[in-house]
Amino acid sequence: MAKIEMKVNGRAVSRDVPDATLLSEFLREELRLTGTHVGCDTSQCGACVVHIDGKAVKSCTALAAACSGSEVTTVEGLANGGLHPMQTAFNDNHGLQCGFCTPGMIMSGIDMVNRYKAAGRELTEEAIRHELEGNICRCTGYHNIVKSIQDAAAKM
Amino acid sequence: MYQTKYHKPDSLEAAIALLSSSDEAKVLAGGHTLLPTMKNHLAAPSDVVDIRGIANLHGICEDGGSIVIGATTTHAEVADSALVLSACPALACLAAGIGDPAVRHAGTIGGSLANNDPAADYPAAALGLGATIVTSQRELPAEDFFDGMFTTALEDDEIITAIRFPKAEAAGYAKFPNPASRYAMVGVFVAKTSGGVRVAVTGAGEDGVFRHDGLEAALAGEFSPEAAGSVGISPDGLLSDLHGDAEYRANLISVMAKRAVKAVA
User: Closest-CA residue in chain A for B3?
Assistant: First the structure.
C-alpha cells in the first residue's frame, strides 16, 4: 500500500491505497470526485484531464502514488463562490452536447488560456482547435467548445 | 493493472540499487508508455522505480557546443525552452508535436528514447543530430544506442541520465502524424552537422529509427527540397500495417524529407 498525501481542490487528503492505483481511480473511487471522467483509459480522449501543480495532465495515465505531495485541481474545484469563467462560457455558448467530455474540455481550456496568457501569445480559434488535439468529443460538438474557450479567454 | 510496488528514490544510486534488487523492476518517468503497457497486462513489473525525484536528472543547459537535456525533462519543457528554441528550433518544434498538451506535460525525453518506439519522434532527433546518450554507466553515441524496434543498448539496471545534442548548423523536422493518434507514421529529421548532412527517419523502419544514405548523399551535394525529392526511396525494410504499407511509407519519407529541408529555410 502507498500512503498518498495531496491537496485536492485546496483540501488536504490522506489515504492508503494500493501502489498501482491510478490518479483517476483515486479521485473517483477514493475521494468520490466523479466529475473527472474516464472515457478511453488509454490517454487519448482527455475526459480525465486534471491539473497537477497547475499543469493539465491525463489522470488515467498517472499513478496516485506518484502525485503524492502535489496539488491537484479537478473540475469540482473550479467554482469559487460562482462558476469559473470557463464554466460560465461553456454554459453561455452551449459548449456541450452529452457532457461526457466537458470536465476534460474545461480543464484543458483553462490550462491553454493560462499558458497562452503567460507567454503573451494570442489564443486564436486555430490555436484552440490545435490545443484540443488531446480532448475528444464523441458528439463532435467542437464548434461550440471552441467558441466557449474563446469567450472564456477574453474574460479570464 | 497488476499490483506493483512503487518507489521514488531521491538519488541515482538508490534507483540503481532498487533496479538491481529485482529481476522485474522497471523505471518510471512520465509513465506515458509504461502505464498503458501495464494496463494492457503487457508489462507486470514487481517494482516501479520513479526517477522524477532525482533532482539532477532534470533540466536543460548549455555545455560548450552542446545542449544537454536531463532525462526526466518533459516534452513541454523542451518545446518551451528559450535555450532550445534559439540553439535548435527543430528540436523544440519536434517536442511541441509529440502527443497533445497534457501528454507533453508528463512524457519525458529519457522515457521516449529508452522505449525506442518505432513511431516515436525523439529517436529521429537523437540520430539526426548525432546525440550522445548519457547513462548511469557510460556515454553512447545514438548509433550504438538504438538497437531495433523497442530495443536499446541499455542494461536492465542502467538509467539514462541526460542526452547531449551537439548544436547543428541547421536542422529541420517534419512528420506525417497518424490522423487519430498523432504518432509519426513517418518523421524525417535533417541536420547539417560538423560531420556532414545527417538524415534520420522514424515511424517507417521495421527495425526502428534509421539513417538514410541516399538522402544524406543528395543533400550533401545540394541542401534543397528538390535534391531531397530526387532520391528514390526503396520500400525494402519499411513497415506495413493497417495504417499504410511499405510503398506508402516510402513515398511519405520522400515527402517528409522535402518538408524537413524546407522547414530549415
Answer: A20
Q: Tell me whether residue B70 is in a domain.
A: no
pLDDT of residue B181: 81
The reply to whether residue B8 touches residue A66, judged by beta carbons under 8 angstroms, is yes
- B1 domain-assigned: yes
Given B5, B80, B101, which is nearest A134 (Cβ)? B101
Q: Is the pLDDT of residue B193 over 90?
A: yes
Give yes or no for a contact between B128 and B191, defined as CB atoms under 8 angstroms apart. Answer: yes
Interchain pair B35, A131: CB under 8 A: no
* Domain with A35 in it: 2-74
| CA nearest neighbour of B130 among B183, B76, B88, B79 | B88
Residue B31 lies in domain: 1-51
Residue-wise pLDDT tens digits, B120-146: 999 999 999 999 999 999 999 999 999
pLDDT over threshold 70, residue B183: yes
A36: domain CATH number is 3.10.20.30
Q: How far is CA B256 from the centre of its chain?
A: 17
B62: which 3 cell numbers? 548549455
CATH number of the domain residue B180 falls in: 3.30.390.50
